[in-house]
Amino acid sequence: MSDLPSRVRILEEGPREGFQIEKGAIPTRRKIELIDSLSETGVEQIQITSFVSPKAVPNMADAVEVAKGFSRKPGVRYTALWLNDKGLERAIATERLDIRGSLSLTASETFLKRNQNRTHDENVAAVKSMLGTYKYHKVPVNRASIMAAFGCNFEGDVSVTKVLDLVQQLLDLALEGGVTLELISLADTMAWATPASIHKVVGAVRNRYPGLELSLHLHDTRGMGIANAFAGLQMGVKTFDAAVAGLGGCPFASHSGASGNVCTEDLVFMCDEMSIETGINLEKMIESALLAEEIVGHPLPGSVMKGGSLGRLRQKVKARLAQ
Amino acid sequence: MSDLPSRVRILEEGPREGFQIEKGAIPTRRKIELIDSLSETGVEQIQITSFVSPKAVPNMADAVEVAKGFSRKPGVRYTALWLNDKGLERAIATERLDIRGSLSLTASETFLKRNQNRTHDENVAAVKSMLGTYKYHKVPVNRASIMAAFGCNFEGDVSVTKVLDLVQQLLDLALEGGVTLELISLADTMAWATPASIHKVVGAVRNRYPGLELSLHLHDTRGMGIANAFAGLQMGVKTFDAAVAGLGGCPFASHSGASGNVCTEDLVFMCDEMSIETGINLEKMIESALLAEEIVGHPLPGSVMKGGSLGRLRQKVKARLAQ
Question: Is residue B307 a part of any domain in this protein?
Fold first, then answer.
């Protein structure tokens, strides 16, 4: 087990991943309440909202209000998502966010076409244009991501060669744009990964680019999220996106595409129990998870929020033995 | 990944694990319907019911009717659970089951006391007595299990030494009783295991008893079930208990103790995708899972039954490409 990292970074995406897919409108003040609760957990980064078209994602129409309303806690980075210049400019204008640029390519052109209505070449052109915008606004860029890196509902399995090609394209685009990528996120956007494919893909990228830090963005649609995170840990991955309570997926709806990030507190639990530091207080993250469930008004997929931590049980055992 | 087995045995415990904890009464004919559905999945063993006191477990009062009612499919073993001579004799009397004996010790005496109202010594005496009963009825005995092998809600963490001691005690008891144990099941009865502790405990037992086959009985209360199964596969474990749809646990109740076996079809999905043969047809197991959910009348924890298999998606991709 000596290959497991001693410390990992778990980046919270619940407020953005979760609320965007909810059917009913979530009141702005409740979104802010969840962000403020997450700020108390020790998590180092919270993606609070998405500056996208309110027509496409009605639940994100209040992005500016959310950004203006939460309480900044020192030491926490507050980020957001945008897909174009207009979104970025709205995010910057709030003057309340930690604006960092990220480049994104997609391993499935069919998915890209459906998701962003672009061909791969159009997407590369958009990345180049975005790099110009980041430069103009003096936004630091050090991260990129590859969507659908493990498979696609519309194109099927994605080859390791394809992922390696995209990593190289991202590095080339960054070089051309005068930025240095420190981290590439491999996203299992449609939940095709298994521990074996995590080993295979992460291993191949790591072999070719030993200096590049990798992160994993895992979805749990087929129940593999935590196992895939463990496989990532075994490959030395030190950064994970996650969503409190498993927000983003409803286990009671049929899933047509992406759904449900790996659950933050379940991942923190696993790390805690395996002596991997996360900096996150599990009990506080469970409180945030219960709050998230109350806010959306239906059961969320997280397990530890229902099963409880072992820390609490160990305390009870200790107390009983001390009697 | 070369240490993963090429074939595993997944033993179905859903009808027993699942129905015993349901609050409402499940009609006998529906229990039989699920067993008959499971018989069509290719699974090699189904634990169909529990011959225990109807006072303690009201939902198992119809054990004899269930045993008499299902349709035996050639090639499938139909087993049941009992905790004493009376239960065993009721099971034998049905003349419809594959009666095999199993010895059981528990790593936590506090749990044993609460669960079976016995001290460890009383439990050892009960095992000896049961061995006599098995001999009398000519019941083959080749399996044993250790409950609470990874931790206990009432005693806390369980040491590896404790587990090793219990393995030795079981082997001694078997030797004394004139039977040969081929397999010892390590049960994570209260969901304390993580992939790290699976590696540690399975590794220690394997090191000391290299000829002994191990199986894992995993609960998913804290969302670690599939990750723990993967860790087991990495340690060469080839036999797993599982429950269709994750029966046995309700994600919407607070868990005070044991709950929810690892989900059969999620485990089959992971194995399929990692080229590990199970002999089980995933699509048919998903059908059984959906039937189980309909029978209990509330959502069950399984993921692949909601997210769908990748096999189906690959077929669609192929069909589209062929157009």
Answer: yes
Contact A221 B307 (CB under 8 A): yes
What's the pLDDT score for residue A53? Answer: 87
d(CA A244, CA A234): 23
In a domain, B1, yes or no: no
Query: Total structural domains in chain B?
Result: 1
Structure tokens at A31: 């979104």
Compute the distance between CA of residue A271 and CA of residue A275 in angstroms, rounded to an integer.
6
Tokens in use for A264?
Answer: 């933050």
Report the distance separating Cα B76 and Cα B182, nearest Å.
20
Residue A68 has pLDDT above 60, yes or no: yes
Confidence of residue A254 (pLDDT cuts 50, 70, 90): very low
Tell me the nearest-neighbour CA distance from B312 into chain A, angstroms: 10
Closest by CA position to A76, among listed A101, A96, A94: A96
pLDDT tens digits, B237-268: 999 999 999 998 544 444 443 358 999 999 99
User: How do the residues of chain B divide into helix, strand and coil, expressed in percent and rounded to 5?
Assistant: 45, 15, 35
Q: Tell how far CA A188 is from the center of its chain.
A: 10
User: Could you give the ipTM of this predicted complex?
Assistant: 0.95
Residue B199: list chain A partners with CB under 8 A: 1
Q: Is residue A4 part of a domain?
A: no
Residue B150: C-alpha distances to residues A247, B173, B201, B222, B227 (Å): 29, 22, 8, 13, 15
Which of A12, A21, A11 lies closest to A298, judged by CA?
A21
Give yes or no for residue B229 having a pLDDT over 70: yes
Let me know: does A246 contact A217? Beta carbons within 8 Å: no
CATH number, domain with residue B172: 3.20.20.70
Residue A2 resides in a domain: no
> Over chain B, what is the mean pLDDT?
93
- Report CB contact under 8 Å: A199, B1: yes
Residues of A in contact with B200 (CB under 8 A): 1
3-state secondary structure of B271: helix
- The Cα–Cα gap between B187 and B249 comes to 16
Nearest alpha-carbon partner for B221 in B181, B244, B188, B245:
B188
User: What's the pLDDT tens digit per position in A169-218?
Assistant: 999 999 999 999 999 999 999 999 999 999 999 999 999 999 999 999 99
- Give the least confident one: A98-107, A113-122, A170-179: A113-122
Q: φ and ψ at B293, to 5 degrees?
A: -65, -40
pLDDT band at A290 (very low <50, low <70, confident <90, very high): very high
Q: What share of chain A is helix, strand, coil (3-state, %, to 5)?
A: 45, 15, 35
Nearest to A127 by CA among A99, A106, A98: A106
Catalytic residue among A152, A250, A263, A271: A250
Q: What tens digit of pLDDT does each residue of A39-48 get? A: 999 999 999 9
Name the residue range of residue A238's domain. Answer: 9-322
Instruction: Estimate to the nearest angstrom the gap between the alpha carbon of B244 and the chain centroid.
Output: 10
pLDDT band at A259 (very low <50, low <70, confident <90, very high): low
A chain contacts of residue B194, beta-carbon cutoff 8 Å: 270, 273-274
